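Hey Z.,

So I finally got round to the adenosine-5'-diphosphate thing we talked about over coffee. Here's the setup:
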Amino acid sequence: MTTTATIIEAFGIKKIYKRGAERVAAIDGLSLTLKEGEFLSIIGPSGSGKTTLLNILGCLDNPTSGKLAVGGITVHDNGRGLSESQLTRIRRQLFGYIFQNFYLIPTLTVLENVLVPFTFFKKRGAEKDVMAILKNLGLDKRAGHLPRELSGGEMQRVAIARALVNHPSVLLADEPTGNLDSERSREIGQVLRQLNEKEGLTIVLVTHNPELALSARRIMTLKDGKIVEEQARPEH
Ligand SMILES: Nc1ncnc2c1ncn2[C@@H]1O[C@H](COP(=O)(O)OP(=O)(O)O)[C@@H](O)[C@H]1O
Ligand SMILES: [Mg+2]
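And the result:
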């Protein structure tokens, strides 16, 4: 029997925002467990807390209360948390992030953009490693091009490549196809599925594109900061 390690464990997470005198629970007592190798989609209406949740899971934001452990390390325990430098290390070692607006640097080539994470932390052999990642994503012929010479789908693939250079355990994607047409969205869905199935990359994908959500085997619906539905789909 093989046991799969838990990579994210969230228990009773709350995130409260103050809006004037009003307090808004963006995340309202949410618990979830993510195991290594899983591909989870999070869907739900605008304002349901998807981005807030993803940022908390990815240690980019702090919950107001609740408990969060990532990679076996307790990050938050009812308001007590790690230091900023410890969080930085966890973000760098454990997570890759992609967003709706690809955040490429317009004056840098594809290769240079993907090497950006190494700007402050030199790593031997990085360039060779990065070329292999680009090739895997069908971007090797684009290495010397500038972002403006690429299609939207290619730009997002460059952003995916950049997220993968630190060999993260978990890829977190917030509306990665929000700026893409349906054809390019499908392409990104396939890339993510391949990374999950062939490379065993754990993925959490936030989207309100129902077709893209089906790339995952586990789909969770959020409403008002709570999980209101959860589906597990058979292998596909
Ligand atoms: N920085 C913030 N300050 C105050 N309220 C916020 C902030 N960020 C998000 N919210 C509120 O939290 C709720 C969830 O937002 P969000 O996580 O962005 O939802 P989604 O990504 O599903 O659209 C919304 O009501 C939103 O207005
Ligand atoms: Mg959002």
